[in-house]
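SEVERITY: medium
COMPONENT: batch folding queue
REPORTER: lab tech (J.R.)

DESCRIPTION
The queue accepted two submissions in a row. Attaching both inputs and their returned C-alpha cells so the on-call engineer can compare them side by side.

ATTACHMENT 1
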Amino acid sequence: MDQTHARALEALQPFVALATSNSATSPRFVANIVTNATSAPQTYVFAELLETPTIQALAAPDTPAEYKGYLKLLEIFAWGTWQEYQATPNLPKLSAEQTLKLRLLSLLTLATTTKPLTYQTLMNSLSLPTTADLESLVTTAIYANLISARLSPASTPPTINVTSVAPLRDVQPQSLPQMVTLLTEWESRCGEVVTDLETEIARVKANAQKRFAKEQAYRDRLDEAVQRRQPETGREGGNAADKRAGKSGFGRGFDRMAFGLGRNKREADDFDEDDGFASGDNGEAAASRMDIDEGAGVGRGGSRQTKRVVGRKA
C-alpha cells in the first residue's frame, strides 16, 4: 500500500471510532464528525467513514434538513470535485481548511483525467482567480506528496506536467459495475494475448526442431561421405607415391642398391660378388682388387691429393 494512502487511513481512524461509538446518536454530533474529518490536515480518504451506519443515517427522512447535506458533502470529499460542490445546492458552507482540502482532492482527479493540464483549465475548474493562487495550490500538493509535478509557466500555453498521482480518491459505488466490466474486458484481452503467445512459441519450437533435424541429416550424410572417401584417398595416395618414386628414379635406385646393384657400371663393379675381401682355401687373402695409394703428393693448385683405386680387377 502507498505510504500516503496508509497515513490517510490512519488519520481517519479516530473519526471512524467516534461514528461507531454509542455517543453518536444525534444528527448534530454526526455532522460535527463530518466537519472535523474533512477539515483534518492528513485525511484524504473517507470511504470507511461513509460506510458506517451512523453516517448513512443522515439520509433518513426524519433527519433535520440542515444536517442532511453533510452526507452529500462527505461523498463529494470522497470522490467528487470542487465543481460538483458548487453545482449542488443546500450543502454546508466550507471552512478555509475544507476549501483547501477539496481543491487539493479535485486537483488529483483533474491530473488523471485532463490532458494537457493547463493553467487556465485548472483556474476555471478550481475557481482560482490568479496564477499565483494556482501555483501556491500545486506547490502545497507537491510538498504533501499528493502529486509529483513540474510547473511550466513559460510554455505556450502555461501547463503543469504531472508525473505521478497519489491513490487517494475513493471509488464511487455506482462506478463499480462499470469498473468490473472494464476489468473483465481487459482480462479477456490478456487471455487472447497469452493464447497468441503460446501459439507463436509452439510454432517457433516446431520450426526449430525441423531445422535441427535437417541439419542433423546433413551432418550424417557428410560424415558418411567422409568415411567412404578415406579408403579411396589412401589407395590413390599410395599409387601416386609409387609413381612419383618411379619417375624420379629414387625408387629404382633404392631397389638396386638393396640388391647390390649400383646406379652405374662403376658402382656395379664395386659391388661385384668378388669384392676382394674373401679368403682363399689356404687362408691367405685373395688378390685384392682394392689398391690404396695414400702417398703424399701435391697436385695442381697446390692441394694435397690422395690417390685411391677401388675395385680394379687384377
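ATTACHMENT 2
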Amino acid sequence: MSQTTNDHTLQLKRVLTLKDLVIYGIAFMTPIAPAYIYGFAAESTNGMLPLAYLIAMVAMMFSAYSYGRMAAVFPNGGSTYTYTQRAINPHLGFFAGWAMFMDYVLVPLIVFMVGASYANALIPSVPYWVWVLLIAGIITTVNILGIGIAAKTNQILVMFMGIVVVIFVVFCVKTIVGGESGTSLFTVVPFFNDEKFVMSAIISGSAMACFSFLGFDSITTLSEEAVNPKDDIWKAAILACLIGGLIFIGQAYVAQLVWPDVTNFSSADTALFDIAEKAGGAVLATLYTVAIIVSTVTAGLTGQASASRLMFSMGRDEVLSKKFFTHLHPKYQTPVYNILLMCVISVLGALFLSINFVAELMNFGGLTGFMFVNLSVIVYYFFRKKEMKIIRYLLIPGLGFGICFYLFINLSPMTLKIGFIWLAIGFIYAFITTKGFKKKPTTFTDL
C-alpha cells in the first residue's frame, strides 16, 4: 500500500478500554433517551412502549452484530465508511461515509439545540443563543484536549445520568407499591394489553424507539484509539445496545405503571416530567430536567468526536482534503480542524434550524449507514471470503438490513427528498474528484 509510510505519522493514541467504549456508546445514546419520545411513543403504542423498546433493542442488536463483525476484521477508524469501502467498493464506501456524515454532523447540532432549550427553560434570564455558545465551547474544548479526557468526562456524566435514572425508577416503584397508580408492580400489561394491542401501532412505535439507539455505531469510529480493537469494538457495540435497551425498557415500564393513561399528559413533549413530578414532586422533576441537559453534553461530546474521526479517515484516504482533515494538534494529537469545523456547523445550525427538521434528517443518515454495514458483512464474509455460515454471515446481517430498509422507506417524503439531495451532492463531488470514478482512494491504489 502506497501510504504505509505517510499513514504511520497519522495515527491516533490508543487509550480506550472496553469499559470506555461501552460508556462512550451509552453516552451517545444517553441513558435518559426515553424522555425525548415517551409521550408520543407511549400514546402511539397504546401504552405498550416497553414492548416497542424490546423489539427495537433486538432489531438494533442485529446491526450492532454487523458493526462488530466488520470492526473485528478492519480495526481502523472510519466505521461505516471504512467497512463499505473495503468490503464492497471504495467508491460506494464514500457514499456510505457521506450519508453517515450527515448523521454524525447532526447529532451535536441537535444536542446543542435541545440542551440550550432546556437550559433556557430552567434559567430564562440567560438567552438561548448564549446557552448554545456555552455548550459548544465546553464540548469543543474537551474534544480538542483529547479522547482520553472526553472518555473520563463521559464516565462522570453517564454516572450522573445513571444515578438520576435509578432515582427516577425508585420513586416510581415507591409510587406503584404505595398504590397511588392503582396497579401492581409486576404485570405484563406494559408489554401486552390484549384489549389495546394493535400490531401496526407496535411496529410504528418500535420504529420510533429505534432512534433512541442511534449512536451505538459511533463506537467503531474509535477503533484507532482502542487498546484492543479486534476484541473490544464488537463487544462494546453489542453491550451498549443491550445495556442501553434494558435501561430504556426499565424506565418505560415503571413510567407506564405510574401513569397508565397515556393520553392525559399536560404535554406529550414533557410526558416524563409529568410522571417524575407525580412520583417525586418538583425536586425530582427538576433533577430530571438537569439530567436532560447533561445528556446533551455527553451526546455532543461523542457526536462531535465521531464526526471528526470520520473526516480524519476520509481525509487520510484523500477523498476529502488531506491537508485540512488529517491535521492533528501538535500536543494533544486530536483532529483539531475537524473538531472546530464541527463546532461552527453545529452552532450555526442550532441558531437557524428547527429541532424537528434536524431530527428527521438524522434518521436518513443513520439508517442508510446501518444498511451499508449489514450489506458489507454479507458481501465480505459470505461471498468474498466464502465463509458459508448462513446464520452468522447471511441471516443475521440480512435481518438487520431488512429491518433498517423497512424503517428507511417509511421516513417522511420531505426527509427522503432532502436526504437524496445530500447524496446527489456527494455523487457530484466524488465524480469530479475521482475523474468519473476512475481514480481510487489512495489506500487502494496498489490493491
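NOTES FROM REPORTER
The CA atoms of residues 51 and 191 lie 5 Å apart.
No errors were logged for either attachment.
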